[in-house]
Each structure stands twice: as C-alpha cells, then as structure tokens.
C-alpha cells in the first residue's frame, strides 16, 4: 500500500472524516485489522483563513508546498489535500515538490460522469465557486457544465462554511437555507450538486435534496485508498 500524505486542518472537522473514511475503506477492502498507512500534517486554520481572505495566494502556495515537501521527506508517496479550496495550488505542489496530488475535482468529476450527468451545481467557498481552478478541471477533463448560486446565495453558502461548519456548528436554519439554494439551482438546470467544500457534508445529505449529491469528502477519501492500493 502506498503511503498517503494528508494535508489537513482546513478545517479539522472534515479532516476527522478523511481519517475515518480512509481507514474504514482500507479495512473494508483488505479485511482483518488492516488500516491505512498515512501521514497527516494539520495546519492552524486561523492563519490559513486570514491569508485566504486577504487574497495572499502566493504565500499560501509557499505554505502548502513546504508542507508537501515535509510529507514527501517523511515517506509519503502521494498527497491528499483535505479541502477543496486549497486545490488551487495543486499544480504548484506537483511541479515544485515532484509528488502526485490526488485532485479532488478529478475524483468528483469521474463520479458525476459515472452517474450520466452533464450539468451540476457547485457549492463551496467563494474562492472555489468563483475562481476557475476547480470548474476548469470539470469542464476540460469531463466536459461537465457547472453553475453556481447567485451573488447573495453564494455569500450565504460561504459565510455558513466559515462561521458555522468549520467550527462544528450545525444549525437547522442553515440547512434550510442550503436546501433552498440547491432547489433554485435545480430549477436552473442542475442535474446534481457537488458539495465542493469538505465541511458541507456535515450539513447536507442525499436525503435532504431531490437531485444526486456528490459528497467530495467521501469521494476523495475513498479514491485515496483506491489509489494507494493500486499496484
């Protein structure tokens, strides 16, 4: 089994799920008392969040590259970034560190195509929804059309992520807001919805909406095990 290098802590709420799903999936596939060989570098998310909102992406890239180097030096065979937004620097990590980054948008795109869908909604941070680094992968590699919420709804999605979900706060009122936003996107032609922030699955489940839900946390964590076990 390849050794998985996890970059976590963004937030630790979803990183907990990554660790749990990766090990549960490993045990399911290998049986017995098997668990995953993995290393995790968990950041102080307060620092990361400030830099994100200050638009200091070059500094963030340097941080992520340095972490990936440490994981590679410690024996990691590939990198799993336990958050959607920070895949903005996935290519920089691969180019500067010389290690494979298992891209969350690629893993998710494969699932969308497997379900026969061509147009999906994307929920996530403002950075993930509005910038091209995520949508570009889905369009260029899978020919998947992506729609996002309107300006006001995007702000709601973003605010709930940072002020509630990243702190482990689950409010029924926030769930209802998300459900309403997803319904509006469905009415605008979305055939499915990508939960493009690893905290959103804490709030929204498949039973909450009428269209297929793509839980990027689970998809990415399971794909990490599959890649690790692939000879």
UniProtKB/TrEMBL annotation:
Pfam families reported in the protein's UniProt record: Asp_Glu_race
Presence of the UniProt keyword Chaperone in the record: no
Record GO terms (molecular function): amino-acid racemase activity
Keyword vocabulary terms for this entry: Isomerase
NCBIfam families found in the cross-reference section: asp_race (TIGR00035)
Protein name in UniProt: Aspartate racemase
Family per record: Belongs to the aspartate/glutamate racemases family.
InterPro entries cross-referenced by the UniProt entry: Asp/Glu/hydantoin_racemase, Asp/Glu_race, Asp/Glu_racemase_AS_1, Asp/Glu_racemase_AS_2, Asp_race
UniProt-listed PROSITE patterns: ASP_GLU_RACEMASE_1, ASP_GLU_RACEMASE_2
């Amino acid at each position: 089994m390849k050794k998985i290098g996890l970059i976590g802590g963004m937030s630790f709420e979803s990183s907990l799920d990554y660790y749990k799903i990766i090990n549960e999936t490993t045990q399911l596939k290998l049986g017995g008392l098997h668990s995953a060989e993995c290393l995790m570098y968990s950041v102080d998310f307060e620092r990361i969040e400030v830099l994100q909102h200050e638009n200091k992406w070059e500094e963030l890239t340097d941080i992520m590259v340095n972490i990936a180097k440490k994981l590679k030096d410690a024996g990691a065979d590939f990198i799993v970034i336990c958050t959607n937004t920070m895949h903005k620097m996935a290519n920089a990590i691969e180019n500067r560190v010389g290690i494979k980054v298992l891209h969350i948008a690629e893993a998710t795109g494969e699932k969308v195509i497997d379900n026969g869908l061509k147009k999906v909604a994307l929920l996530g941070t403002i950075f993930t929804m509005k910038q091209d680094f995520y949508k570009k992968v889905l369009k260029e590699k899978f020919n998947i059309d992506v729609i996002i919420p309107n300006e006001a709804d995007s702000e709601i999605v973003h605010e709930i992520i940072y002020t509630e979900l990243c702190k482990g706060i689950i409010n029924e009122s926030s769930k209802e807001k998300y459900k309403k936003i997803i319904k509006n996107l469905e009415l605008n032609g979305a055939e499915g919805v990508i939960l493009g922030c690893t905290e959103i699955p804490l709030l929204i489940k498949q039973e909450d909406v009428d269209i297929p839900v793509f839980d990027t946390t689970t998809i990415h964590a399971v794909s990490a095990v599959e890649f690790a076990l692939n000879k």
